[in-house]
């Protein structure tokens, strides 16, 4: 992704651009950039998103809306509880390695149903049916880590799960880890509050201040 002067956008600049959009969304003054016919035509030949956004599938977490962005800005991947499998890893790597996105965002949120269901399953020794069981199994390490740390608040469980997802992404993806080590990409974890629309930084990897 290129910046205004034609240089490659830095991870910090990409994060600042993303968070500026979130501030507009919070204040009720979104600009709805890059959502017109001219933008549609301009990006038809190729895409150059400035961020890969891997978030929860929750219907209240629409990335382009809460960050006030438009067509071609974000390469979005979503699963329940932002749980990760090979397809997710391949998609993130595609955004980083082939599209050159300088930022990867793991986006969690309060009142996450996947985390709540996993807390219940761990506490009661039960699980869900069908493939929902797989989601719970993948969130379980985060819940166990939060319990071991003595946390009780839902917000702490959410933050631990976001941190765990960021760590797991870097552990499992050599492509992403090497891009971070080289300074081409940073990975950040954000937690979104449903009531006020604010996204808060939870953790960063490879972000130069």
Automatic annotation (TrEMBL):
Keyword terms, alphabetized: Lyase, Metal-binding, Zinc
Binding-site residues, Zn(2+): 56, 58, 109, 112
The UniProt record lists the keyword Transferase: no
Record organism: Kitasatospora viridis
Function comment: Catalyzes the reversible hydration of carbon dioxide to form bicarbonate.
Required co-factors: Zn(2+)
Gene3D superfamilies according to UniProt: Carbonic anhydrase
Reactions it catalyzes: hydrogencarbonate + H(+) = CO2 + H2O
Entry similarity comment: Belongs to the beta-class carbonic anhydrase family.
Protein's GO biological process: carbon utilization
Cofactor annotation comment: Binds 1 zinc ion per subunit.
Protein EC: 4.2.1.1
Pfam families: Pro_CA
Broad enzyme group: lyase
GO molecular function, one term: zinc ion binding
Name the UniProt record assigns to this protein: carbonic anhydrase
PROSITE patterns associated with the record: PROK_CO2_ANHYDRASE_1
UniProt key word Metal-binding: yes
PANTHER family: CARBONIC ANHYDRASE, CARBONIC ANHYDRASE 2
